[in-house]
Every structure is written in structure tokens, then in C-alpha cells.
Amino acid sequence: MASVCCFTSSLVPLHRPIHQFSSFLTIPNNKNTSATATASAIVPSTSMKNSKTVWIWTTTQHVMTSALERGWNTFLFSSPHQNLAHHWSSVAVIFPVFVGEGEILDGQGKRVASVIDVSTPEELERLRPEDEQSENIVVNLLDWQVIPAENIIAAFHNSQKRVFAISNSTSEAKIFLEALEHGLDGIVLKVEDVEHVLELKEYFDKRAEESNLLSLTKATMTRIQVAGMGDRVCVDLCSLMKPGEGLMVGSFARGLFLVHSECLESNYIASRPFRVNAGPVHAYVAVPGGRTCYLSELKSGKEVIVVDQQGRQRVAIVGRVKIETRPLILVEAKRDSDSQTVSILLQNAETVALICPPQGEALSKTAVPVTSLKVGDEILLRVQGGARHTGIEIQEFIQGRN
Predict the structure, then answer these.
(1) What's the CA gap between 129 and 357, in Å, rounded?
(2) Each residue of 149-167: pLDDT tens digit?
(3) Which ranges of 22-97 does DSSP label H, i.e. alpha helix?
(4) Mutual angle of helices 61-70 and 194-210, in 10-degree steps
(5) pLDDT tens digit sequence for 264-302
(6) Contact, 149 vs 165, CB < 8 A?
């Protein structure tokens, strides 16, 4: 992802119109501030979904160094901070640009972006792609945020122009990056606290993780046994799941089963494509960042990983968790290349199913109910390191018993 960083004074009020922030200041280019390098740093990649440009506004060096570690290396300076521009250019390879009157300029005075304040519906209505000369447009939403951002995305959807919004926190940045599913092309994160930069880095890491296929392997059922009563967890998501999708759950972190959602139709009960009847409270469930947590730890607002038969993954938000006492069934499986078995306990009900390996192009058999499982049936398994500390994989000796 191509990314840009910007910095400005902490003395400026957060919600003043941008054109009042500073006047344009030209400083001589040194070896680190060539106009060519500045321009190339601002050009984003062509991927709309995965490429988001980040500008960070700050005068805090700790924020600057953290941004550089992320690869965000274009900085914006207002006129009172020319010495800061020289200083940072002497200690790091950066690309300084400057805020002018309603525009952002590089060191040669070339316009990088136009800056527009939006505080009324009329000002928003006047913001149209055909009326803007700059390739990049920075909007300062002084009143509402979500609806204006959605309207801007719709208006610029088929345009070559790129639109950014100023945000004062990571939570605001997420609003702009996710509005209308596509999000704006970038954000200007105006902060003095490094935690916001770290949180934004983590957010982008999660987005990148979704584009990676998870390695799933075939496993063969070796034992199915009624186990008695236990407290099982239904996880209701804020997203709908399709056939072949579910959550990765297991009694041991070293082997997670792909438990199907309740999206399949039945004559006896309505489908609930937002729900996974995931297993007992002790079981592990996969969450973003390569981590696991206990099903008993899930609650509204937490994130989990939804995975399909092909290993495609996406992040989903938990809307509700239901824990109820139900009859359980124990299932064990192992890979042909491994003598070690892994297990999972699930509610003993026809609506609970494990996802099967895809059969070439034919994906009609997506899952098999636990009530129909037989020894020798094949299901999908995620094999990974077994030792965990607070859900994070670590290298240590651990022996788990089925």
C-alpha cells in the first residue's frame, strides 16, 4: 500500500478551517527533499480496496518515527515549522510538503492536493469531481462525518480523483476508510499521541491479513462419541455468512476445525446465516492477528475470522453471544501425515456441521452435520502451533491430551 504522512502544529485548534492553518512556505530542497521523490511518494497504487493513503499531522517526533517504521514517509509542515522540516530531513529520508491557502504544495510550489472545508450540506453539494482541478482532494468535515463521507464516495465513485478526510483519532479514520464498504481513498490522521499511529498500523495489518489465503488441510474422522451435557456458545455475527463459511474452532489451538454457519435451509428451523453454533466455552476460536481466544471470552464488538472452504478469510464483528446448556458430541480427527489427533466438542444437533474439503469445482457438499458424521469422513482442519500465551503463539513445549 502506498502511503503518505503529514505533520502540523499541535497549537492549531482541531476544527478550524484548513485554510487558516498556515501559509505556504518554500524551503530549499536538500538531498532528502527532491521534488521528484516527493511526487513519487504521493502516487498511490491502483488497487482501490487495498491501497489507502495515510497522512499524519503532528509535531511529535515519536509519532514521526513510528510513522516511518510503517513506511509512511511524506511529512507536511506549516510555516512556523520550517526548522523542524530541516531537522527531520537531516536525520531521516523524508518527503516534506506544505499547507498553503486551500492547497498542499511540494517544495517546488507544485500543487499536491486541494483542501476543502465542509460544514454545511450546501458546501458538500458543491463538491463535485468535474469542478476540482487537483488529482487529490483533502476534505475537512467540520460537522457530520458518516453521511458526508458516504455522499462523497458516491459522487467520486467513477472519478480518477482521490479523496481524503481529516480525522483526529483511529476510530474516526476507520469511519472514513470503511464508509459505503469501499471507503475514501485515504485519511489525514491529526494526532499527537503515538497510540493512534500504532492502532492504525494494526488496522491496516488486519486488512492485509484478509487478502491472504489460510492453509487448510484434509483430516479424517477417527472417533465420534456422545459426551453428555455442557455449556455451548452460539456466536451471532454482524455479518451474513454463505454456504461454505464458518468459524475456526477447536479444543486445542494446534488444530482448529471449520465449523459451518447455520445458513443452510431446513424443513424444521429457519436458517440463521449470521450464527455459528461454535462449541463449548473452553474451545479456542480464531481471531485476527493470528491469535486465538476462548469462546467464553467473546462478546459484542469483538472480532473473529470467518473462513471458507478455499481458505479465504475476512474479519467479522460479534453482535451477540449465547451460552446455553446443551448435549454435546465429541469428534476426533487426524491428518494422514500425522499420527496426532485433534478434537472438538460440539452441540449434538442437526444444525451443527463441519465444513468438508472442496471436491474440485463442485462445492455442492459444503458441510456434514455432526449427527451424520461417520469414522472415515473427511473434514477441513487448520493446523498451527499449539503453544499459546494469552492467545499468541509461542515456542515452548506443551502436551495437550484429547
Answers:
(1) 47
(2) 999 999 998 888 999 999 9
(3) 35-42, 61-70, 82-91
(4) 10
(5) 988 889 999 999 999 999 999 999 988 999 999 999 999
(6) yes
Burial class (CB in 10 A: 0-12, 13-18, 19+), 76: buried
CATH code of the domain covering residue 253: 2.170.16
Global confidence as pTM: 0.70
Coil, helix or strand for 281? Answer: coil
> Are both 226 and 206 inside the same structural domain?
no
Decide: 175 and 208 in contact? Cβ < 8 Å. Answer: no
Task: State CA 204 to chain mean position distance.
Answer: 6
Please count the CA atoms within 13 angstroms of the CA of 232 that sit on its side-chain side. Answer: 23
Query: Where does residue 54 rank: exposed (0-12), middle (13-18), buried (19+ CB within 10 A)?
Result: buried
> If 0-12 CB within 10 Å is exposed, 13-18 middle and 19+ buried, where does residue 304 land?
buried
Farthest-apart Cα atoms in the chain, separation: 77
Contact 378, 355 (CB under 8 A): no
Question: Which residue in 254, 389, 245 sits closest to 315, CA to CA?
Answer: 245
Q: Which residue carries 472438538 as its cell? A: 344
Angle at 350 between CA 349 and CA 356, to 5 degrees: 115
Number of residues assigned to the chain: 402
Q: Which domain holds residue 243?
A: 217-393
Same domain for 200 and 221? no
User: What does the block give as the cell for 200?
Assistant: 492504525
